[in-house]
Amino acid sequence: MNLQINRHVMPKLNRRAFVIGTATAGAGLALGLDLPFGGPGVVRAADGAPEVNAWVVIRPDDTVVIRIARSEMGQGTLTGLAQLVAEELECDWSKVTTEYPTPGQSVARKRAWGDFSTGGSRGIRTSQDYVRKGGATARVMLIQAAANEWKVPAAECKVSNGVITHTPSGKTTTYGKVAEAAARLEPPADVKLKDPKDWTIAGKGLKRLDTVDKTTGKMVYGIDVKLPGMLNAAIKDCPVFGGKVKSFDEAKISGMKGVKKVVPVGDSAVAVVADTWWHAKTALDALPIVWDEGDNAKVSSETIAKWLAEGLDNAQPAYIGNQNGDAKAAIASAAKKVEAVYSYPYQNHATMEPMNATVLYTPDKCEVWCGTQNGEAAFAAALEASGLPAEKVDVHKLMLGGGFGRRGMTDYVRQAVAIAKQMPGTPIKLLWSREEDMQHGKYHPVTQCKLTGAFDADNNLVALHYRLSGQSILFSVRPEALQNGMDPAAFQGVAQAGEAAIGYSVPNLLVEHSMRNPHVPPGFWRGVNVNHNAIYMECFMDELALAAGQDPLEFRRKLMGKHPKHLAVLNAVAEKIGWSTPAPKGVYRGIAQVMGYGSYVAGAAEISVTDGSKIKVHRIVASTDPGYVVNPAQVERQIAGSFVYGLSALFYGGCTVKDGRIEQTNFDTYNSMRINEMPKVESVMVPSGGFWGGVGEPTIGVAAPAVLNAYFAATGKRIRSFPLRNQNISFA
Amino acid sequence: MANLKINGKTITVDVEDDTPLLWAIRENVGLTGTKYGCGIAQCGACTVHVDGVAMRSCGVTVSEAAGKDITTIEGLEVNGVMHKVQLAWIANDVPQCGYCQSGMIMAVAALLKENPKPSDDDINDAITNICRCGTFQQVREAIHAAANA
User: Fold this and answer.
1) pLDDT of residue A35
2) Residue that is last in its domain, among A187, A215, A243
3) Residue A13 included in any domain
4) Residues of chain A where predicted confidence (pLDDT) is lower than 50
5) What are phi and psi of A64, to 5 degrees?
6) Chain A interface disruption, residue of B38, B46, B77, B78, most A CBs within 10 A
7) Which chain A residues are Cβ-neighbours of B126 within 8 angstroms?
């Protein structure tokens, strides 16, 4: 059975890149990872300070340098991971600074820093155990070094804020003084991690470590890199995905000011290299390019929508992601049934900083400077694009001007290497224009969903059929992660079990996916498949409640008896928003819940509507149970930020396809929320412990359905296709 | 060729008259705190002060800016003392990725100069910068904090 009616080519991966790329993308730890916690040979940081282990360098002045392998893109992971290491290390937080090891260094040391990938809300939850162990191991070694010096048992020593005290004698020393000796010790075989109840640095809303440079303009992002002799490149890739360059007329622009070279990039793009980027861009705009757009130029949003709609037909093949009972039979014989079709459009990440990378290539070395969510993937891309061996390649990570999943991809790194390779010895900074960024995204996938619910004569929900049709991200991005062709991630939020499990029990349930992959390249977009799955399921839950004549909250509660953690966050928002008491006059409420990235989240919105179409979102209450909260101030900011991202997409977003290309080219046609549209966001954190869930993404799922359900409460109109601007609905 | 007076210093830049001020600041003067976001005066990441007025520098040419007093994020600090908006930003831990924050801070500094105690409505009208991380709640708190500093 061929389920994939695809016009998509499998990505080609050479063996070397594949090994690193997939190890990086996946769990990582199982794949030849060697996480050292110190040893006899002293490894030194660039300034000569000793590594107590890979995670901790201590300078003679007691400064503690904590190594962070994951990327900071605004989500606060840099600070959170440092808090976890510092907590176990028992160092002085005011003396903590951080440093990124390079992927090249990590690979040379058998992946000493583990997985670099910073996506899927994994930054903290999948590395907390080994980074805490890194801190704890270093603490034990530092205390042992002091005890050795004093010739006393280590058990008689304690440490606080980086000051070690021999309790019986009262003698003290500091981490900076014993670090050199500690670095020479054998690390302990096993260390006990603290009970989070005893945390004093982690678990607190400490200020971020990277704020000052972000308020003075000193923070260096990829776009800000300056190298001696550097030239700048602007690029145009074929606007139709899959198309190629037929020809370009270099002579037309060769005399333009500052232009140094015009180069092909792969078979689909052309770049102009000039002294400044403005000159490069101006010349590129004047360069005549003839494209071979190919068959994809016939594709439009309409043809895609028609193709996806066909997938909603039960006669078409589909992958089953979650089922119990016999939903189709139960629906066929039900006393009453409700059916609705929803759809969700493409979305661009639109990071504030457009894609860019700077590369210095010589036949002996390829160095890359860029913002990336996955240093090792960027490293693998540079390795492949340069053709050089691993020891001659490295990637220097810089602050990201937004990631949201986009910078986990490496297309821009490959392009920059391809350009630099044509100008050996000259550093080249490739920067995409906003227009290039908008038209060459890795888009939130497009889907449709037909939902059918069936009731018995007593208005009990007896069956639910959730039939998705649309694009798989993994098919395009990580085909090796498909399971017999099925994309398990397509069921995020409606899966049977695991980190994105459904929160409802229905006697007869069928969740399935008819995979249809248009030519528009998809990517992981903050929240990923949770975005549309939460809208479909949570809006439909309200439709079912209405059909049953029940309150949306009470209707859900009845189905959630076996899902206590889902229910707990739902109850938390219901209580905080005051669901049991009437809303203020003219204000209407909506509620939603979902699970994603290992965390349970719920949201409740209060809105008012003017003229049936102008929405003022007054307030959104969010609740999350991520197991543990490492920095509540940052969790609060991630919740509010995720709502801005999700509601911007709901109201203003939506990328449409015409003649095979994306129509939106800048923020004038792909708008984003401003401060005047920002609701008051209140966060209720209910960490229940015993598991580690993510933070950056899960809550994005509940903002849209909570607002849409409130909109229905206010107007009686159910919106099932997005963005809202297409329905002439806007912010008030 | 144009003479730009940036952060109190006059700098001669060898660029075409229609070069956007943003790119002259970033590439010819070398001050990279001012960011490129859209190039069409939508997002505000490139906001600087021109004769004290917040302007989107991608939409101003060097010939229009020549001879005027231009202040960038790097020039907001006076004699090593940060502007009260910067201090409020740090105290309220406003930035996430931080990329839009130079422009946001410049827009707010100009607002407070004109309207030292802005109401929420005044803020809504004056601050139209895009922040994809969604820092607006902290931005609003920090504006009020700076106004009361």
Assistant:
1) 59
2) A215
3) no
4) 1-33
5) -105, 120
6) B38
7) none
Please report the pLDDT score of residue A259 as a whole number: 98
**Tokens 């700077």 sit on residue:** A358
Q: Which residues contact A575 (CB under 8 A, 6 or more apart)?
A: none
Which of residues 663 through 682 in chain A touch B, CB cutoff 8 A? Answer: 666-668, 672-676, 678, 680-681
Please tell me the predicted confidence (pLDDT) of residue A322: 98
pTM of structure:
0.95
| pLDDT, position A152 | 98
Structure tokens given for B31: 């001050």
Q: Could you report the predicted ipTM of this complex, rounded to two decimals?
A: 0.99
For residues A194 and A252, state if they share a domain: no
Q: Per the domain annotation, does A26 fall within a domain?
A: no
Q: Which residues of B touch A672 (CB under 8 A)?
A: 43, 130, 132
Tell me the CA distances in angstroms from A287 to A18, A27, A267, A297, A600, one per residue in order.
Answer: 36, 45, 17, 21, 52
Share of chain A above pLDDT 70, in %: 95
If asked whether residues A255 and A130 sit together in one domain, one would say no
A283 touches chain B (CB under 8 A): no
Domain B84-147, CATH number (from 1.10.150.120, 1.10.3430.10, 3.90.180.10, 3.60.15.10): 1.10.150.120
- Long-range contacts of the stretch A710-714 (C-beta < 8 A, 24+): A710/A588, A710/A589, A710/A590, A710/A605, A710/A606, A710/A607, A711/A588, A711/A590, A711/A607, A711/A609, A711/A615, A712/A539, A712/A542, A712/A590, A713/A588, A713/A589, A713/A590, A714/A588, A714/A607, A714/A608, A714/A609
Residues B70-117: tens digit of each pLDDT: 999 999 999 999 999 999 999 999 999 999 999 999 999 999 999 999
What pLDDT was estimated at residue A41? 72
Q: Sort out which chain B residues have CB atoms less than 8 A from A404's CB and list them.
A: 132
